[in-house]
Amino acid sequence: MATLTQVATRTVTYREAVALGLAQEMGRDPTVVLIGEDVAAAGGVFKATAGLLERFGPERVRDTPISEQAILGAAMGAAMTGLRPVAELMFADFLSVAHDIVANQVAKARYMTNGQLSVPLVVRFGNGAGLRFGAQHSQSVESWLMAVPGLKVVVPSTPADVVGLLAAAVRDDDPVMFLEEKALYPMNGEVPSGEHVDQLGVARVRRHGKDATIVSLGTMVHRSLEAAAQLATEGVECEVVDLRSLVPLDVTTVAASVTKTGRMFTVEENPRLCGWGAELASIIGEECFYDLDAPVRRITSPHVPVPAAGSLEDAMLPSAERVADVVRRALG
Amino acid sequence: MYRAQVRVRYFEKKAYDLFLQNLVKGTSHLAIGQEAIAAGVAAALRPDDYVFATYRGHAHAILRGAPMAAVLAELLGRQSGLMAGKGGSMHLTYAAGNFLGSYAIVGAHLTIANGAAWSARYRGTDQVAVAFFGDGATNIGAFHEALNLAATWKLPVLFICENNLYMEYTPIATVTAVARPAADRASAYGLAPIVVDGNDADAVYEVALAAVARARSGEGPSLVEAVTYRHGGHSRADPGKYRPDEEVAEWLAKDPLPRYRERLLASGANPAVLDRIEAEAHDEVEQASLAAQGAPLADPAELERQVFADGGATWRR
Ligand SMILES: Cc1ncc(C[n+]2csc(CCOP(=O)(O)OP(=O)(O)O)c2C)c(N)n1
Ligand SMILES: [Mg+2]
Q1: A287, A262: one domain
Q2: What ipTM is given for this predicted complex?
Q3: B304 in a domain, yes or no?
C-alpha cells in the first residue's frame, strides 16, 4: 500500500530548510546570489547554507571578508542593477555595525529617488536567544528593523515557513529582513516536497480558541502553543496567532481573532521597550477597543541585555509557564 | 570637456544665487572649483557605466544627463524635481543615466558601487562603476571595507577621491595619519598610489581612461586621488573663514576653467566657439531656473508614495 501513497511532504530541520529554500530560488532564477562570511566553503556558521557552493558554484555563493558594511553595500548595489542577492549577516547582533547600510541606504533608496531605484534583496540573520551566547550574540533585533520605514521584516517559526517565506522574500521587490531564529535551527518539521512559495504579510492561526488571543512570533510561537495546550487542560481555549512578519503586519487576522475572544496577549522575545507588541497593542486598542474585555497584556523579556548563564537566560525569556500564568490570572 | 566644466560652473552659481534669494532651503554643497574632476572622469565613461556620488553631487548628476531644470526643481522642492522633492540636493539620482545616487552618509556608497560592479561582471557585461568621494571619507571604515572587497574580488570599479584638502571645516592633514589621504592607503589594498591634478580636466581624463581600461579588462579596481579645492564653503551655510586667505588666493589662481580655456586657445581653438559654449550653458541654466521656479511645489500626495515597490507606504493589512 505504501507505494500508492503520494508523498506530499518531507521532514527537514529549520536549518536545512534555509538551504532548501535558497536552492529552490537559485535553481529557478540565475540572478539570485548568496554572499556572507563563511557561507560558501564552510556552509555557514549555522550550517544553514551547506551544499549551496557545491551546487551553484563560487560565482553565485561567495565568502566575504568580515566587512558587514561591504557585504550589505555589495548586496544593495547588485540589487539596484539587476540581481536578487541574499546576504547573510551571521548573528543578528552584527546588524549594528552595518545599520547605516540597512537603515540609511537600503531602506530609503526607493523613496529618496522617487522609485528610480529598486532594492530587491534579502538579508538573513541568525536571531534571538536561548543558546547561552550572551549579550552580543543573542539579541532579537526585529523591533530595531520594524522601526525603519522601507523594510519588510519576516520571522519564520517552522521549517515550512522558512522555505515558503524565504522564497517569497527573494521574489519580493522590496528589501526583506529575514530573521532566522537560532533556537529553532535544530527543529524538525514537514515541508511540501514540490516548489513552495508563501506570502509575506499573512499571519497564521496556529491554534483555534474562543477565550483569548495569544499573538506571537518566531520561537515564542512554540512557547505560546505549549502554554495554550496547558491552558486547554484547564478549560481555557486560546487562539494562537503566529504573525510571521512584522512588516507587512497582518492586523486583519489579529483583529478578527480579538473580536472573537475579547482578550489579547502578546508573547515577545525582545526586551520590553518598543517591542512589536507595543505597536500591535496600540493598534488593537485604537481599532478594537469595544471588542476588548480587558487591557492588552504584553509578555516580554525584561528590559535587560541577554545574560549568558542558562539559569539567567531561562529566567529572562518568556516561558510557556509564564505565558500560561499570565493568561490564567488575567482570565481568573 | 570645456563645455562640461562650464555647464557645471554656471549651474552651481545659479544654485548659489537661488540660495541667496532664499529659494533653496535646507543644505547644498557646491562643486565650484572642482569641476575638472567631474568633467574628466565623465568623459572617460560610457553611458551604461554606473556612477555614485556624495551629497556634493550636482556636477555628477548633470554630467550623467540629468536635466538641469529637474535638478534645480529638486533643490527648490518642486513636483517636477528629479525625485519629486523626496531626495533634495544631497540625494540626486538619475537612473536613466545610470547615475545611481548621491549619498549623504560619508563613505557608504563606496560599498554600494562595489555591488554594481560585481553585478556587471556577474551579468557578463563590461560596465564599470565609479564612486566619487571626499578626502574625509578615507578615514571611515566603509572606505576600507570597500577597498578591500573590491581588490579581493577584482571588481571593475573606480574610486575617485576628490581631495579638496578639507572635510567640513577641518583640514584633512590634521586628522589623517598619512600625507595623501587616499593614495597613501592604496598599497594596503595592493593598489597603485595614483595622484592627479584635480584642476586639470585633461590630466584627470587620462588617469580615468587608464583606470576604466583596467577595470573593463578584468584587472580590478583603481583608487585615484584628485587634488582640488572648493572655492566656497563646505555647504551653503559655510563662509569658509577657517581657510587662510593666501591659500584661497593660490587656489583661485589655479581655477580649472580659465586654465582650460587658455589651453584650448593656445592649441588653436576659435575663441568664438568657446564664447558660444559659454553662452549656451548660460542659456541652459537660465531656462532651467525659470522652469524650476515656475513649477508647482511638491505635491503632499507624494508623501506616502514609493516607500515600497507597490508604489505606496502600506505596512499593514
Ligand atoms: C558618517 C558621516 N559622518 C559625518 C557626516 C557629516 N559630514 C558631512 S560632509 C562632511 C565632510 C566630508 O568631507 P569630505 O569627505 O572631504 O568631502 P567634501 O565635503 O570635502 O567633498 C561631514 C563630516 C556625514 N554626513 N556622514
Ligand atoms: Mg573634502
Answers
A1: yes
A2: 0.97
A3: no
- Total count of residues recorded for chain B: 317
Q: Is residue B115 part of a domain?
A: yes
**Domain extent for B237:** 2-298
- What range defines the domain where residue A225 resides? 204-331
Residue range B48-86, pLDDT digits in tens: 999 999 999 999 999 999 999 999 999 999 999 999 999
Report pLDDT digits (tens) over A55-110. Answer: 999 999 999 999 999 999 999 999 999 999 999 999 999 999 999 999 999 999 99
Q: Which of B133, B139, B168 to mutate to test the pocket of ligand 1 (most atoms within 8 A of CB)?
A: B168
Question: Shortest Cα distance from A69 to chain B (angstroms)?
Answer: 6
Range 100-139 of B in CB contact (< 8 A) with A: 100-101, 103, 105, 108-120, 122-123, 129
* Cα angle for residues A164, A128, A41 (degrees, 5° grid): 65
Question: What is the distance between the alpha carbons of residues B155 and A283, in angstroms, rounded to a whole number?
Answer: 47
Q: List pLDDT tens digits, range A1-17.
A: 445 555 589 999 999 99
Give the Å distances, CA to CA, from B184 to B159, B176, B180, B225: 14, 10, 5, 9
Side-chain half-sphere exposure of B171, counting CA atoms within 13 A? 10
Q: pTM here?
A: 0.97
Structural domain includes residue B315: no
